[in-house]
Amino acid sequence: MLADQVNTAVRRIPVWLVYCLGLLPAPWFLYLGLTGGLGVEPIKALEHELGLLALQIMVAGLCITPLRRYAGLNLLRFRRALGVLCFTYVALHLLVWLVLDVQSLARIWADIVKRPYITIGMSAFVLMIPLALTSNDLSVRKLGPLWRRLHKLTYVVVPLGAIHFVMLRKGFQLEPLVYLLAIAVLLALRLPVLARPRRVSRA
Amino acid sequence: LVGLAGPGQAQSGDLKPNTFEEITSYNNFYEFGTDKGDPARYASRMTTSPWTVRIDGMVDRPADYTFEDIMARMTVEERIYRLRCVETWSMVVPWNGFELADLLKMAGVKSGAKYVAFETLLRPEEMPGVRFPVLDWPYVEGLRLDEAMHPLTIMATGIYGRDIPNQNGAPLRLVVPWKYGFKSIKSVVRITLTDKQPPTSWNKSLPREYGFYSNVNPEVDHPRWSQATEKRIGAGLFARNQPTLMMNGYADEVASLYAGMDLAKNY
Fold first, then answer.
1. Is B172 within a domain?
2. Using CB atoms within 10 A as the burial measure, which of A65, A80, A121, B224 is most buried?
């Protein structure tokens, strides 16, 4: 079966390789920003590239369970790497916003409390912190069943990220709505009514 | 750069224009897509010749004026203006153009006209962006008659002495330097004199965020961001934000137009 072949092939990919490849865009974007590759206004462009990549990794992470359930594809061993990479890009996105974009502590605080799309984005980041801190084997062992419940926060964080994207665009734009829709579908697949019995038993 | 005597020149001494490349690669022209690079990518599809501008409504000589007719009767001069986008970026553009007042006088403004309405070309087969209802097409804008007649208000037909590129609103566009960029409507096909305040695209779409006046004002924030500072295009990754000037630096010339008005309410 194709899924089995893919599963066998995927098992040979070391997780550290996913981390390495996943981190490559960060220095690449910085290089582009410094050399004109991000256009004539590189600050916003860098901020947006980092945020968009974080959102894309979130979507990829949400695909893992449905792929296993409906296609028999087991990518579970990469899920932590995706989560940690996603957090890294959200943190870099936030850093660019603070240091290069807004440039003023007073305005940063004013923006967080006054502007709903920033409040939402910031909430998503804060909710990701405990997830990033517990993305290690020790925490999984120590927290036991609580770990699974804690990491259900993902289902709150990801839509917040997409809503943040929809709200920051001017007017009614297609691209952020496509992400929001994809995320809504991926989350709906997890509803008990839609979740069919699994084809692959838990490893 | 040729310095021409006239309004708007007083500030030009300290203004360093952006490069032609910067001015023509970073644009908002949603008819061609919402990405800043989309207009430069797709606007070459727009046919700009032949071009006519319908001037109608409360005028003595309503007609479809061809672009050549207009150019034969207007005096083109250079105006180096700041351009401040509502999204907080800014640039300096050396426009070539003529005063809108001269165009309106050509058509003859009837007494009783109080506003000027503008409309952008809508040609879906040449404009990939209008497939999506980002805005209610065609793009429309408006000015009060005194704003339209102000000597700073021009119709631009060139940049750096070259024909204005399509992505910047060829073959002729409005430039109102003390207002946020979206008021300076591109690729104008219709100008209507009226006694009622005309609808404007961004105001129809998001009235809480975009008012009819939309004068640059560092003290009145956009609901989603501060307008106190701006980013100069082309300044690089580590550029410091610049303070935004009242009326984009043209307050001495235009503040009197709004005497007695509450600018926080009439945003």
1. yes
2. A121
